[in-house]
Amino acid sequence: MKLANVRAGDVVAIGGRGEPLLAEVRAKQRGRLTIAPWPNRRTRDRRPVTIAALDVLAHFRRRARASAAEIGDLVLVDIPGRRFHARVTARAGQGELALDPLSPRINYFRARPRDLQARWTITQPAIGMCVLRAPGDSERIAQ
């Protein structure tokens, strides 16, 4: 992976047991990234870890306009009382988004544009993270 494209605040996917782990980039230096893992089903530990850039499976760039989230993007959702990360699975009518929460205890599967706080868009899909539709249709759908 090219380290020149990665900036602090971006999200990267790294290999984990069974499924890729997501982590936020804190710093980069000489082919290595300092990352803070996002909490998931197995761990809540957010201690910064240093990894080699070669270990990165996918890169999600930080974007300014969260309300313009597309299918496959990662979003930070803040519904009053709950704040969580999710993957966008579909765009419903009137700007609503169908979500796949990354934490198992979250049971919110829809969000309005005003509930979105931050967005990361995929630049290089990890193996098995995206599936292509029928031949000729280049849209990606997150699993």
Can you give a write-up of this model?
This protein is mostly beta strands and 143 residues long. The chain folds into two domains: 3-61, SH3 type barrels, CATH 2.30.30; 63-142, SH3 type barrels (Roll), CATH 2.30.30. It has strands at residues 11-14, 21-29, 32-37, 49-52, 56-63, 74-79, 82-91, 97-101, 110-111, 116-124, 130-132, 140-142. The strands form two sheets. The protein has a ten-stranded antiparallel β-sheet, with no helix packed on it. Strands 11-12 form a two-stranded antiparallel sheet. A hairpin with a 6-residue loop joins strand 1 (11-14) and strand 2 (21-29). The radius of gyration is 15 Å and the shape is globular.
How is this fold's topology laid out?
Blueprint: E1 11-14, E2 21-29, E3 32-37, E4 49-52, E5 56-63, E6 74-79, E7 82-91, E8 97-101, E9 110-111, E10 116-124, E11 130-132, E12 140-142
Antiparallel strand pairs: 1-2, 1-5, 2-3, 3-4, 5-10, 6-7, 6-10, 7-8, 8-9, 11-12
Considering the chains and any ligands shown, give keywords for the structure.
143 residues, mainly beta, SH3 type barrels, 10-stranded antiparallel β-sheet, two-stranded antiparallel ribbon, 12 strands
